[in-house]
Each structure stands twice: as structure tokens, then as C-alpha cells.
Structure to design on (200 residues):
């Protein structure tokens, strides 16, 4: 960690872009910028014209963030797309908790995930974001939404899963924990959920 901080400090002192480090266990790894599928040109795109399906589809595929709409939930939940994976799927889909919740081992509920073409909600930690994505893809999930384990949100790096054919996104810790808690307690009948990108 100290070497990573020194590397970042030195880059800034020389006027270079700070390298992007992330922690895996006790090790600090660097994410090369080339490993991001997020296109900075998308930040400058205009809003799609209402009713223009082609512009709306392009916006959904290229935006760096979006909103998770959940039937029966009082508000939308903002998500940040990962630096790897596919754009979020369109349409309404069930959401299921990963079992185990960290999605670091084969999912016990893979059959149910496949049956409903479900979006899988998992907690951050224990293994890399790429490992979680591969586990959910192997279980037949439509997308992976990771609940952060620290305040704030981020675009998750995935140098070990750059070509993953699955949408991976992250939601903030507080909102994600509310979702997980509600689903674990069965307090909300969240029978229809959607991962839909919308510009706000």
C-alpha cells in the first residue's frame, strides 16, 4: 500500500495521470487504463430525444452509470458500471441474492437464477470483482450488481475478467445493504425488478 501511494504521489508530481490501484487481499494491484471498457466520449453525449429508441438504446449501452428500478421500492438506486463486462440488460427481470452472498464460490441457487434469468445481487469482498462476475455468469445470471462494503460507489476494476460477457455494476453500501436486508427478511415482494439506465 505504501509503494502504491508513493507511485501515485510521484506520478502527480511529474504531471502524469495517477495510476489506478485496487486492493486484492493484502496485495495492491494496478489497473492499466487500457483495461477499461468505459468510453470517456460517452460523458459528453447529449441526452437522447424522448421517443427515439435508437438514441435511448445507445445511451443505455454507453453510459457509465444508471438507475436500478425496483417494483415496490420507494426510490431508484444509482449504480456505477464496472470497467469491464457488458452494458446492463434491458427490460424487467427478477433479482436474487447470490448464495453464497459474496459470489466467490459456485452459486447454490444457480438453478433458480437460470430459471428466472435473474439479476444477481452480491456483496463486495473475499474475491475479485472479476471472480464474482465469472461465478454469476457460470450460474446463468443476467447481470451482477455488487453492494459496496465501504461508503460511496465506484467503477469496479476487473483486469482478470476484461472480456466477461456479463453486465457488472456496483451500488453504494447504504442502499445496497437496505436491499439485501429487505430481501433476506422477505419484507418486500420484489417480484419484478429491472436494471435500466436512465439519465437524470
Amino acid at each position: 500500500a505504501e509503494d502504491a501511494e508513493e507511485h501515485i504521489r510521484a506520478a502527480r508530481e511529474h504531471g502524469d495521470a495517477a495510476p489506478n490501484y485496487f486492493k486484492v487481499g493484502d496485495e495492491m494491484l494496478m489497473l492499466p487504463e487500457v483495461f477499461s471498457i468505459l468510453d470517456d466520449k460517452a460523458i459528453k453525449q447529449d441526452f437522447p430525444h424522448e421517443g427515439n429508441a435508437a438514441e435511448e438504446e445507445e445511451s443505455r449501452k454507453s453510459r457509465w452509470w444508471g438507475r436500478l428500478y425496483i417494483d415496490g421500492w420507494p426510490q431508484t438506486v444509482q449504480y456505477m458500471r464496472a470497467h469491464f463486462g457488458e452494458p446492463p440488460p434491458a427490460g424487467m427481470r427478477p433479482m436474487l441474492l447470490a448464495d453464497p452472498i459474496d459470489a466467490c464460490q459456485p452459486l447454490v441457487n444457480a438453478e433458480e437464477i437460470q430459471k428466472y434469468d435473474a439479476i444477481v445481487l452480491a456483496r463486495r469482498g473475499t474475491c475479485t470483482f472479476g471472480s464474482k462476475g465469472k461465478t454469476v455468469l457460470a450460474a446463468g445470471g443476467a447481470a451482477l450488481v455488487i453492494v459496496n462494503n465501504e461508503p460511496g460507489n465506484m467503477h469496479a476494476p476487473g483486469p482478470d475478467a476484461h472480456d466477461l460477457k456479463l453486465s457488472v455494476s456496483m451500488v453504494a453500501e447504504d442502499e445496497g445493504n437496505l436491499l439485501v436486508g429487505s430481501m433476506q427478511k422477505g419484507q418486500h415482494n420484489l417480484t419484478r425488478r429491472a436494471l435500466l439506465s436512465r439519465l437524470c
Remarks:
- The longest strand covers residues 65-70.
- Residues 20 and 164 are 20 Å apart (CA to CA).
